[in-house]
Specification:
It contains 16 helices and 21 strands. With about 475 residues, the protein is α/β, with parallel strands linked by helices. It has 3 domains: about 150 residues, Alpha-D-Glucose-1,6-Bisphosphate, Chain A, domain 3, CATH 3.40.120.10; about 220 residues, 3-Layer(aba) Sandwich (Alpha-D-Glucose-1,6-Bisphosphate, Chain A, domain 3); about 90 residues, Alpha-D-phosphohexomutase, C-terminal domain (TATA-Binding Protein, 2-Layer Sandwich). A hairpin with a 5-residue loop joins strand 10 and strand 11. The longest helix is centred in the N-terminal third of the chain and has 17 residues. The two termini are about 35 Å apart. One of its GO terms (biological process) is purine ribonucleoside salvage. Belongs to the phosphohexose mutase family. One of its GO terms (molecular function) is phosphopentomutase activity. Pfam families: PGM_PMM_I (PF02878), PGM_PMM_II (PF02879), PGM_PMM_III (PF02880), PGM_PMM_IV (PF00408).
C-alpha cells in the first residue's frame, strides 16, 4: 500500500523504518524538485543529529541533483535556523532540512524552507504534497550521490562562519564574550551542541555544555526544552554557579530558559521578556506577532509602549508571513520559537538564547530580577500546558470527532467564569470574563491533545485546565 505523506504544522514527520524510509524521503525530494522546476538557483540541504540523518540528507541531495538542481549540502550537523540563514545568504531557491525537531527519537522528518528562509505557506505545502503523491505513484529521478558530488551537482559547504557573522549583526558578540557570564547550555543531544561554546569563545564568558555529544536516542530524553524534560539542567542551575541556563530542542530552532536560581522561565514569560527588552531597553518599535497559545503579557506591553500586537494561529508559516508584511519587531509562539527583525522570519533558538544572555548584560541584573521587573510592568501571570497522548492508529478520526463535539457543545463557563469569546480557527480558545483563557488544540505532527491556560496564578490555571479537560471528557492531570 502506498503511503500518504502529509505535512503538519511544520513539515512532514514519521517514524523511521515505518513511513520515514529512503523511498518516501526520495518522493518528497522529488516533490520539491518538481515544485522548483524552471529554477536556476541552488537548493540548500541540511540535517540534524538524528539516526542516519546525513544519509537521508544525501538521499534528498541525489534526487535534487538528478532533477538538474545544484545542491548546497551542508557538511555537518546543523541547526535548522542555520540552514534557513544559508538559504538567504546563498540566494538559494529553497532549502530542505532532515529533522523531526522536538519529536521523540523514533521520528525523523523533512522541513521545506522557501527562498526567504521562513516556513512554507499552506499553498506551497499543498503543492509539495500533490507533487509528492505524484512521485509516489510515478517514480523518482535519481543518480548516485558520488557521481553528483564528483560532477559538481552537489557542493559541500560549511555554514557556520556566515551564520556566526549574521548573529554578530544582531547582537554585540564582542561585548557578550567579554561580559564574564557563566552560561549553561543544555543542547539535549541535538543540533545546537557546541554552538554557544563556538560563538562565545575567546573572552571571559564561559559555557558549560550539557548533553552535547551526538546521541540519536537522545539518552532517553524527549528533546523539547521545557521543565519536565530537563531535570538535570535545572538541578545544575540550582547549584548557583551559572548566570543563565539556555536549552535548545533537537534542531535548535526553539529555546528554553532557566534562571540563576534553577527556576524554569516558561515560554510565555520568555516572549514577554523579549518584548520588554526590545521595547524598553533597546528602544525599538514595531509590531509584535504572537501565536494564540502565547501570553496576554505581550498585549499589555504593546499597550504600554504603543505597538500593535497580532494574535495568529499556531505555526511560523502564519507568524512569519505577518512579520514580513508588517516588518515586525518580534514573532513568537508558546513552543519556544522566536524570530527577530533583521534576521530570518523564522524561529532561531541559538539567536534567542544569545538574546537572553544579552538582556542580562544590558539590564545589569540577574534574570530573576528582570522577571520581577516584568511583573512590575504587567502584573502577575501564570501558565501551564497539559499533554494527553493517544495511539497513532485512529488519531485523525479522534481529532475530527473531538473538534466536532466541541463545536456542537462549547462550554459557556469554565471554573466559574463566563466564556465571553471563542476563537476556533486553530483548536478552540475560550476567553473568560476574568481575563484568563483556556485552549484545546490537537497536534498536527503528533498524536497529541494539548490543553493550555493562562491566568493570574498557578492555582487558577490548574482549575481552568481541569475544567476544560472535564468538559472534553479526557483524563485530567496528564503531562
Amino acid at each position: 500500500m502506498t503511503a500518504t505523506i502529509r505535512f503538519g504544522t511544520d513539515g512532514w514527520r514519521a517514524v523511521v523504518a515505518d513511513d520515514f524510509t529512503y523511498a518516501n524521503v526520495g518522493a518528497v525530494a522529488q516533490g520539491v524538485a518538481t515544485y522548483l522546476r524552471g529554477e536556476s538557483r541552488p537548493v540548500v540541504v541540511g540535517h540534524d543529529s538524528r539516526y542516519c540523518a546525513e544519509l537521508f540528507a544525501r538521499e534528498v541531495a541525489r534526487v535534487l541533483a538528478a532533477n538538474g538542481r545544484h545542491v548546497i549540502l551542508l557538511d555537518r550537523v546543523t541547526p535548522t535556523p542555520t540552514v534557513s540563514w544559508t538559504v538567504v545568504q546563498r540566494h538559494a531557491a529553497g532549502g530542505v532540512v532532515v529533522t523531526a525537531s522536538h519529536n521523540p527519537m523514533e521520528f525523523n522528518g523533512l522541513k521545506y524552507k522557501p527562498d526567504f528562509g521562513g516556513s512554507a505557506s499552506p499553498e506551497v505545502v499543498a503543492e509539495l504534497e500533490t507533487n509528492t503523491a505524484a512521485a509516489l505513484s510515478s517514480g523518482v529521478k535519481t543518480m548516485s550521490f558520488e557521481d553528483a558530488l564528483r560532477g559538481g551537482a552537489v557542493e559541500l559547504f560549511d555554514p557556520l562562519p556566515s551564520y556566526t557573522e549574521q548573529l554578530g549583526r544582531m547582537i554585540d558578540l564582542s561585548r557578550l564574550r567579554g561580559a564574564g557570564l557563566k552560561i549553561m547550555h543544555e543542547s539535549m543531544y541535538g543540533a545546537g551542541a557546541g554552538m554557544f561554546s563556538r560563538i562565545l569563545e575567546g573572552g571571559s564568558t564561559t559555557v558549560t555544555e550539557l548533553h552535547s555529544e551526538r546521541n540519536p536516542g537522545f539518552g532517553g530524553m524527549h528533546p523539547e526544552p521545557i521543565d519536565r524534560y530537563m531535570p538535570e539542567a535545572m538541578a545544575l542551575m540550582a547549584e548557583g554557579h551559572h548566570d543563565v541556563g539556555i536549552a535548545n530542542d533537537g534542531d535548535a530552532d526553539r529555546v528554553g530558559v532557566i534562571d540563576e536560581t534553577g527556576r524554569y522561565v516558561n515560554q510565555l514569560e520568555v516572549m514577554a521578556l523579549f518584548s520588554m527588552y526590545l521595547l524598553e531597553k533597546r528602544g525599538q518599535r514595531g509590531d509584535i506577532v504572537r501565536s494564540l497559545t502565547t501570553t496576554n503579557m505581550v498585549d499589555a506591553l504593546g499597550r504600554r509602549f504603543g505597538v500593535t500586537v497580532h494574535e495568529m494561529p499556531v505555526g511560523f508559516k502564519y507568524i512569519g508571513a505577518v512579520m514580513m508584511e508588517k516588518d515586525a519587531l518580534l514573532g513568537g509562539e508558546e513552543s519556544g520559537g522566536f524570530a527577530f527583525r533583521g534576521h530570518i522570519p523564522e524561529r532561531d533558538g541559538i539567536l534567542a538564547g544569545l538574546m537572553v544572555a544579552d538582556m542580562i548584560v544590558e539590564y545589569q541584573l540577574p534574570l530573576s530580577r528582570i522577571l520581577d521587573h516584568l511583573v512590575e510592568l504587567v502584573g502577575p501571570h501564570a501558565y501551564n500546558r497539559r499533554d494527553i497522548r493517544f495511539d497513532r492508529d485512529g488519531y485523525e478520526d479522534r481529532k475530527a470527532e473531538t473538534y466536532r463535539r466541541i463545536e456542537e457543545h462549547p462550554p459557556t463557563e469554565l471554573g466559574g467564569s463566563k466564556v465571553v469569546r471563542t476563537r476556533n480557527d486553530d483548536g478552540f480558545k475560550f476567553y473568560l470574563e476574568d481575563g484568563s483563557w483556556a485552549l484545546v488544540r490537537m497536534s498536527g505532527t503528533e498524536p497529541l491533545m494539548r490543553v493550555y491556560s493562562e491566568a493570574a496564578d498557578s492555582q487558577r490555571v490548574d482549575e481552568l485546565l481541569t475544567a476544560l479537560e472535564d468538559h472534553l471528557g479526557v483524563p485530567s492531570g496528564h503531562q
